[in-house]
Amino acid sequence: xxxxxxxxxxxxxxxxxxxxxxxxxxxxxxxxxxxxxxxxxxxxxxxxxxxxxxxxxxxxxxxxxxxxxxxxxxxxxxxxxxxxxxxxxxxxxxxxxxxxxxxxxxxxxxxxxxxxxxxxxxxxxxxxxxxxxxxxxxxxxxxxxxxxxxxxxxxxxxxxxxxxxxxxxxxxxxxxxxx
Length: 179
Prior knowledge:
Strand 1, helix 2 and strand 2 form a beta-alpha-beta unit. The chain has a six-stranded mixed sheet, with helices on both faces. It is of the alpha/beta class and about 180 residues long.
């Protein structure tokens, strides 16, 4: 009986050692693949901006092209223009079209979006829902005869809405990361 206990004890120890070695190999391999993936993402996330002009009840592509040209902002411009008034019952179709545009932009590797919009405020909420928590989206408003960047929506935050609050929050985050 003592021999059987000794054999079982050695077998259990060998199984434990093999399991530990296997777990370490899997963890190291996973870490290596994750590090490689993160490096690939860093290289791929170079500056690849794009612009999107959304015009309901009249296109704005021409105005946006002119603005981008005068600002020296060389980037591809896509549009979603409707020359006539769009009733609210067509908003779900437009939202679907925006999701298609977002998918196309994602496939091209866009790293930031400059969004120009002309239309009802009620549809603007839908646009915000589509582009929320994606790449940084710089939203422009038209006033005084030209476009101005109003705010930037980034993952989990909105920059430019309350600059003094955001500055304090950023300082707290930086301090927490350093300390």
